[in-house]
Write a structure and sequence with these properties.
mainly alpha; globular; Glutathione S-transferase Yfyf (Class Pi), Chain A, domain 2; Glutathione S-transferase family protein; 57% helix; GST_Omega/HSP26; 214 residues; 4-stranded mixed sheet
Length: 214
Protein backbone atom coordinates (compact mmCIF):
# COMPACT_ATOMS: atom_id res chain seq x y z
CA UNK A 1 0.00 0.00 0.00
CA UNK A 2 0.97 3.61 -0.46
CA UNK A 3 -0.51 6.94 0.54
CA UNK A 4 -0.73 9.94 -1.73
CA UNK A 5 -0.35 12.93 0.55
CA UNK A 6 0.74 16.55 0.75
CA UNK A 7 2.36 17.83 3.94
CA UNK A 8 0.50 21.14 3.63
CA UNK A 9 -2.93 19.53 3.55
CA UNK A 10 -4.93 19.50 6.81
CA UNK A 11 -6.87 16.54 5.45
CA UNK A 12 -3.74 14.43 4.96
CA UNK A 13 -2.30 15.17 8.40
CA UNK A 14 -4.74 12.94 10.37
CA UNK A 15 -4.01 9.96 8.12
CA UNK A 16 -0.26 10.32 8.59
CA UNK A 17 -0.80 10.63 12.36
CA UNK A 18 -2.71 7.34 12.32
CA UNK A 19 0.01 5.68 10.23
CA UNK A 20 2.72 6.87 12.61
CA UNK A 21 0.69 5.86 15.68
CA UNK A 22 0.31 2.35 14.30
CA UNK A 23 3.94 2.14 13.21
CA UNK A 24 2.99 1.17 9.66
CA UNK A 25 5.64 0.94 6.99
CA UNK A 26 3.72 2.59 4.15
CA UNK A 27 5.16 4.58 1.28
CA UNK A 28 3.97 8.20 1.48
CA UNK A 29 4.25 10.01 -1.83
CA UNK A 30 3.05 13.22 -3.49
CA UNK A 31 0.24 12.90 -6.04
CA UNK A 32 1.74 11.60 -9.30
CA UNK A 33 1.70 14.31 -11.93
CA UNK A 34 0.50 16.86 -9.37
CA UNK A 35 -2.78 17.26 -7.54
CA UNK A 36 -4.71 18.74 -10.47
CA UNK A 37 -3.29 16.42 -13.12
CA UNK A 38 -5.24 13.95 -15.22
CA UNK A 39 -2.78 11.27 -14.14
CA UNK A 40 -3.71 11.74 -10.50
CA UNK A 41 -7.41 11.98 -11.27
CA UNK A 42 -7.19 8.53 -12.84
CA UNK A 43 -5.10 7.13 -9.99
CA UNK A 44 -7.19 8.47 -7.11
CA UNK A 45 -10.83 8.16 -8.23
CA UNK A 46 -11.78 11.59 -6.82
CA UNK A 47 -8.70 13.66 -7.63
CA UNK A 48 -8.41 14.66 -3.97
CA UNK A 49 -5.90 14.01 -1.23
CA UNK A 50 -5.30 11.95 0.76
CA UNK A 51 -5.72 8.74 -1.19
CA UNK A 52 -4.60 5.30 -0.06
CA UNK A 53 -3.72 2.83 -2.81
CA UNK A 54 -4.60 -0.65 -1.58
CA UNK A 55 -2.63 -3.81 -2.20
CA UNK A 56 -4.81 -4.67 -5.20
CA UNK A 57 -4.15 -1.24 -6.72
CA UNK A 58 -7.59 0.19 -6.02
CA UNK A 59 -7.78 3.76 -4.65
CA UNK A 60 -9.36 4.62 -1.31
CA UNK A 61 -9.87 8.39 -0.91
CA UNK A 62 -11.24 10.47 2.00
CA UNK A 63 -9.33 10.97 5.23
CA UNK A 64 -11.85 9.49 7.69
CA UNK A 65 -12.50 6.48 5.46
CA UNK A 66 -8.78 5.77 5.19
CA UNK A 67 -8.26 5.97 8.95
CA UNK A 68 -11.20 3.66 9.58
CA UNK A 69 -9.81 1.21 7.02
CA UNK A 70 -6.38 1.25 8.66
CA UNK A 71 -8.01 0.60 12.04
CA UNK A 72 -9.87 -2.40 10.61
CA UNK A 73 -6.89 -3.72 8.66
CA UNK A 74 -4.30 -3.14 11.40
CA UNK A 75 -6.20 -3.33 14.71
CA UNK A 76 -3.09 -3.15 16.90
CA UNK A 77 -2.25 -0.76 18.39
CA UNK A 78 -5.90 0.17 18.58
CA UNK A 79 -7.13 3.68 17.85
CA UNK A 80 -10.64 2.83 19.01
CA UNK A 81 -11.56 1.68 22.52
CA UNK A 82 -13.60 -1.38 23.37
CA UNK A 83 -17.37 -1.08 23.69
CA UNK A 84 -19.97 0.65 21.53
CA UNK A 85 -20.48 3.62 23.87
CA UNK A 86 -16.77 4.40 24.13
CA UNK A 87 -16.34 4.04 20.37
CA UNK A 88 -19.31 6.31 19.72
CA UNK A 89 -17.78 8.98 21.98
CA UNK A 90 -14.50 8.87 20.06
CA UNK A 91 -16.34 9.21 16.77
CA UNK A 92 -18.37 12.14 18.10
CA UNK A 93 -15.22 13.94 19.24
CA UNK A 94 -13.71 13.24 15.84
CA UNK A 95 -16.75 14.86 14.22
CA UNK A 96 -16.26 18.00 16.33
CA UNK A 97 -12.59 18.05 15.31
CA UNK A 98 -13.55 17.67 11.66
CA UNK A 99 -15.90 20.65 12.01
CA UNK A 100 -13.00 22.69 13.37
CA UNK A 101 -10.78 21.65 10.47
CA UNK A 102 -13.47 22.62 7.99
CA UNK A 103 -13.86 26.06 9.60
CA UNK A 104 -10.12 26.78 9.56
CA UNK A 105 -9.68 25.57 5.98
CA UNK A 106 -12.76 27.46 4.83
CA UNK A 107 -11.45 30.70 6.30
CA UNK A 108 -8.03 30.17 4.71
CA UNK A 109 -9.60 29.77 1.27
CA UNK A 110 -11.99 32.69 1.81
CA UNK A 111 -9.10 34.98 2.70
CA UNK A 112 -7.16 33.87 -0.36
CA UNK A 113 -10.17 34.82 -2.48
CA UNK A 114 -10.53 38.22 -0.84
CA UNK A 115 -13.26 37.33 1.64
CA UNK A 116 -14.23 40.21 3.89
CA UNK A 117 -15.69 40.66 7.34
CA UNK A 118 -18.71 38.48 6.62
CA UNK A 119 -16.45 35.53 5.82
CA UNK A 120 -14.45 36.14 8.98
CA UNK A 121 -17.61 36.31 11.08
CA UNK A 122 -18.87 33.01 9.66
CA UNK A 123 -15.54 31.32 10.33
CA UNK A 124 -15.37 32.73 13.87
CA UNK A 125 -18.83 31.37 14.64
CA UNK A 126 -17.95 27.93 13.30
CA UNK A 127 -14.64 27.76 15.15
CA UNK A 128 -16.20 28.96 18.40
CA UNK A 129 -18.95 26.36 18.12
CA UNK A 130 -16.53 23.49 17.47
CA UNK A 131 -14.15 24.58 20.23
CA UNK A 132 -17.05 25.06 22.64
CA UNK A 133 -18.34 21.55 22.00
CA UNK A 134 -14.86 20.13 22.49
CA UNK A 135 -14.31 22.15 25.67
CA UNK A 136 -17.41 20.71 27.31
CA UNK A 137 -17.13 17.12 26.07
CA UNK A 138 -13.42 16.23 25.98
CA UNK A 139 -11.49 14.62 28.82
CA UNK A 140 -9.91 16.90 31.39
CA UNK A 141 -6.51 15.26 31.07
CA UNK A 142 -4.73 12.72 28.91
CA UNK A 143 -6.02 12.53 25.36
CA UNK A 144 -9.27 13.86 23.95
CA UNK A 145 -11.36 10.81 24.88
CA UNK A 146 -9.40 9.64 27.92
CA UNK A 147 -6.16 7.89 28.75
CA UNK A 148 -5.58 6.33 25.33
CA UNK A 149 -4.62 7.93 22.02
CA UNK A 150 -7.45 7.45 19.51
CA UNK A 151 -8.42 8.33 15.97
CA UNK A 152 -10.07 11.48 17.36
CA UNK A 153 -6.63 12.70 18.46
CA UNK A 154 -5.30 12.04 14.95
CA UNK A 155 -7.79 14.64 13.70
CA UNK A 156 -7.91 17.13 16.57
CA UNK A 157 -4.18 17.56 17.11
CA UNK A 158 -3.52 18.83 13.57
CA UNK A 159 -6.81 20.77 13.51
CA UNK A 160 -5.73 22.90 16.48
CA UNK A 161 -2.45 23.91 14.85
CA UNK A 162 -4.16 26.60 12.80
CA UNK A 163 -6.32 28.10 15.55
CA UNK A 164 -3.66 30.44 17.05
CA UNK A 165 -3.08 31.83 13.54
CA UNK A 166 -6.69 32.15 12.46
CA UNK A 167 -7.97 33.49 15.79
CA UNK A 168 -6.43 36.96 15.37
CA UNK A 169 -7.66 37.12 11.78
CA UNK A 170 -11.27 36.79 12.96
CA UNK A 171 -10.89 39.23 15.85
CA UNK A 172 -10.30 36.59 18.53
CA UNK A 173 -6.54 36.56 19.25
CA UNK A 174 -7.11 34.45 22.38
CA UNK A 175 -9.50 32.02 20.71
CA UNK A 176 -7.55 28.94 21.78
CA UNK A 177 -6.73 30.27 25.26
CA UNK A 178 -10.41 31.09 25.82
CA UNK A 179 -10.98 27.33 25.81
CA UNK A 180 -8.55 26.28 28.55
CA UNK A 181 -9.27 22.57 28.45
CA UNK A 182 -8.67 22.50 24.69
CA UNK A 183 -5.55 24.67 25.01
CA UNK A 184 -4.08 22.40 27.69
CA UNK A 185 -4.88 19.37 25.56
CA UNK A 186 -3.08 20.87 22.56
CA UNK A 187 0.00 21.42 24.70
CA UNK A 188 -0.03 17.75 25.65
CA UNK A 189 -0.94 16.15 22.34
CA UNK A 190 1.58 18.21 20.38
CA UNK A 191 4.28 16.42 22.40
CA UNK A 192 2.92 12.97 21.53
CA UNK A 193 5.30 11.57 18.87
CA UNK A 194 2.79 10.79 16.06
CA UNK A 195 1.13 14.20 16.35
CA UNK A 196 4.34 16.11 16.98
CA UNK A 197 5.84 14.58 13.86
CA UNK A 198 2.85 15.60 11.75
CA UNK A 199 2.78 19.14 13.16
CA UNK A 200 6.45 19.50 12.27
CA UNK A 201 5.82 18.28 8.73
CA UNK A 202 2.94 20.72 8.26
CA UNK A 203 4.91 23.65 9.65
CA UNK A 204 7.95 22.88 7.49
CA UNK A 205 5.86 22.52 4.33
CA UNK A 206 3.95 25.74 4.92
CA UNK A 207 7.14 27.63 5.78
CA UNK A 208 8.67 26.44 2.51
CA UNK A 209 5.64 27.86 0.70
CA UNK A 210 6.05 31.23 2.42
CA UNK A 211 3.40 30.78 5.12
CA UNK A 212 4.35 31.23 8.76
CA UNK A 213 2.67 30.14 11.99
CA UNK A 214 4.22 33.18 13.64
Amino acid sequence: MKLYSDDQSPFCAPVRAAIYAKGLDLSIEPPPGGLKSEEYARASLTGTIPCLVLDDGSPLPESAVIIDYLEDRFPEPALLPQGPEARARVRLLRAFAQDLTAAVVGLFHDLQEGGGEAAKARAREKMERALGLLETSMSEDGFVAGADFTLADCVLGPALQGVPVMGPLVGRPTLLEDHPRVAAYFGRVSQHPPVGRVLGEVQAALAASGFSFG
